[in-house]
Design a protein that fits this description.
Elements lengths: L2 H12 L36 E3 L2 E6 L17 H14 L6 H9 L11 H10 L7 E3 L2 E3 L1 H11 L7 E3 L16 H14 L4 E4 L8 E15 L2 E11 L13 E14 L5 E8 L16 E4 L16 H10 L2
Antiparallel strand pairs: 1-10, 2-7, 3-4, 5-11, 6-7, 6-11, 7-8, 8-9, 9-10
């Protein structure tokens, strides 16, 4: 058995959980939400551009800080109580609503893997709408902070315009455990957070389970190691979905560290042009990115991202209007 496959087998046995997911909204409800993001040119992601580095430390932080919230595993039937209350509120307003019944029949799954859930939807919601911080009455029903967050998470199950860098690892012959490459990762990081000051979503480890984490801050230091090789140590600040209670507010921070080395050539101005890269064991021995590195990264749409729910009885625009924009 190859070394990488042996490591993967060990990691799969150790993982207790992760999360990931195993129509259109019209109107003006989402036009104001993109204003929280800095203005940037038309949506582009770095491609085959050359990556040029400068030795030393650097840091960047987005003005958008994600909020922590429960990731709602696909087996978690507590979501049905939230949807039952939403149905009652809509019924009091004269609208037919069967969100709870639809969720129970079509979406709740007792056979779902332990890591399957809504961390992708939570990550997107936490970067797109302000955090509910107090209970709110809507449609004659009082919704707790946790219930509001649950409905917002359900509203961001599908988002148009997301772009992925890297290829999700599936564990088959076509999957590459070393992907995303350090070159793609660092180029994406520089483009999204350092240049555009925009947060992003990261699947934080390379295994089959998906653990989407919203990232808003980064620090790195670049060390010239030898002629033709420079080393990088990067730290990312993300929000953690493992909240102590459903009503918890604020950002529970998770710190992620990644070590990698680039090969390339030194330029006359003292900078370094990157040709290739590899995940490494940091010299301190604390971070071993050969076995623990990102799987893929997701850019956040700036506008026209048209969030939708997989539940046919949930209107994302109505939910955002109820708990975010007022109404």
């Amino acid at each position: 058995m190859r070394w990488a496959e042996w490591i993967l087998g060990v990691l799969i046995c150790l993982w207790m959980a992760a999360c990931g997911s195993g129509g259109g909204v019209e109107g003006d409800e989402f036009q104001g939400l993109s204003e929280a993001f800095p203005e940037v040119p038309a949506e582009t992601l770095p491609g085959a551009d050359s990556l040029v580095l400068q030795a030393g430390p650097d840091s960047a932080e987005s003005p958008i800080k994600p909020w922590s919230g429960w990731w709602w595993p696909s087996r978690d039937r507590r979501i049905l109580k939230v949807l039952e209350k939403w149905d009652r509120a809509r019924t009091k307003g004269g609208h037919e609503s069967h969100a709870m019944a639809f969720e129970e029949k079509e979406l709740i799954s007792e056979s779902a893997l332990t890591w399957e859930g809504h961390c992708d939807a939570w990550a997107m919601a936490s970067l797109s709408v302000p955090e509910p911080r107090v209970p709110l009455r809507w449609g004659g029903e009082l919704f707790s902070v946790g219930e509001q967050k649950a409905l917002l998470v359900k509203s961001f199950e599908r988002v148009d315009g997301k772009k992925i860098v890297g290829h999700p690892f599936r564990g088959d012959a076509r999957s590459d455990y070393a992907d995303i490459s350090p070159v793609e990762f660092h180029r994406f990081l520089m483009s999204e957070l350092f240049e555009k000051r925009r947060p992003f979503v990261l699947d934080k480890d390379p295994g089959i389970p998906v653990w989407n984490t919203p990232i808003w801050r980064a620090e790195f230091e670049i060390f010239p190691e030898s002629s033709g090789r420079w080393r990088v140590m990067t730290w990312l600040w993300g929000a953690d979905p493992w909240v102590d209670s459903l009503d918890q507010t604020g950002t529970k921070t998770v710190l992620l560290g990644y070590a990698y080395e680039f090969s390339g050539r030194e330029l006359s101005n003292g900078k370094f042009e990157v040709f290739d890269g590899e995940w490494i064991l940091d010299p301190s021995g604390v971070v071993d990115s050969r076995v623990d590195h990102p799987d893929f990264a997701v850019s956040i749409p700036v506008s026209d991202y048209n969030p939708k729910s997989r539940n046919d009885w949930l209107d994302s625009a109505e939910i955002v209007k109820a708990f975010v924009t007022g109404g």
